[in-house]
Amino acid sequence: MTEDGAVGLRFANPTYTDQEALRRLSWVDLKSYLDQQGWRQTDRIGDKALVYVPAETGDGTVEILVPIRDDLGDYASRMADAVHLLARLEGRSALSVYQDLVTSGIDVVRVRAFGGGADGSIAIDDGVALYREAGNLLLAAACTVVDPRRSYHARKVTEATEYMKSVRLGQSERGSYVLSILSPVQPRIGGQQTLDLGEPPFARAVTLRLADALAAAKRAANRALAENAFAPFDESVALGVSANLCDAVARLAQVGQGIDIGLTWARTRPAGRPRQQFNFSSETAEVLQEAARIFRQSEPLTDTRINGFVIALDRSVDQFDGNATLVLLISEKPRRVRVHFEQDAYQQVIRAFQEKLAISLLGDIFPVGQRWEIRNPRELRVLDDQDNDDQAALLDGGVGVTGV
Fold first, then answer.
1. Does any domain span residue 3?
2. Is 258 helix (H, G, I), strand (E, B) or coil?
3. Domain ends where: 298, 333, 356?
4. Are 222 and 342 within one domain?
């Protein structure tokens, strides 16, 4: 207990004392948080305070007094009591609860690495990786809101990349090592407790999808291990599970030696669900990485710029019917790929084959069993300025699919 009566709360910003930081908390935000988390009001103490108890108990053994006047002498102490009780009940730091209370217009994604030092620090390379993969995690969720797919490649979804420009990093927190991502959400006009009945704004749709995708990914990982099957992941694509999301979660869990991901919703736009938290172990990360690999193998690469060599024609030159085999790089490995060209491209394909020249085209690459094929080849060009050694360079990893 400090001299001013506030329970020993230490915040990251040294500009404020505990007393000042606690007085900055709005009792309206505290009340909204309790309402959203399922607490219920059981009593009122005149014009001074509201009495709240958890919905699951309601027996009065645990209660929070919400001061409804900020001119009360014990306002800071009451707010401190509330913050510390919530921290204890939710199993997290008082600072993280405090930050949730002061970010009423923001959805907060909080990532906690188990492998941080006792002093709240982390190796710099690990820290960089955590921030990078946390961003990839949110971007993966944003992409699947627009277009649910098994995998997203170098060309991201425009609406998703535009959304990422609005996302901010919050202050890091103690508790192993905790980073926070802040996603501002437009306030709901017509009352704070009104739920979205139609389509939510894109920023809220992203965080809701992230929560659903994390839950689905964890269920799929458990089922995949129990059933020795990939089907649980395949069935979760519509919920936001993708190669990108699986990779991001796996790398977070590996770097963090286990990871907790928590989501708290902006109280100015109620989400209709309480704070959510998901845990992923290093062992689960291995399953997610394998799922990401299979997703990428089974996802077609659409509208892709392809560079490669024609290494075989199905028929002799004078009987060529458009069916040919190319060699190109897919996922940094040389692959033989089947393709059927339309008749107006025959002469270019034959010339490239005979003179061992590279070609460039746009096409859609589809996995077919253990092989690949190019569909809808278009904008074919023979690259006359290529060296004769380029085919060998391709086989050594030099030329391939642009952007993969």
1. no
2. coil
3. 298
4. no
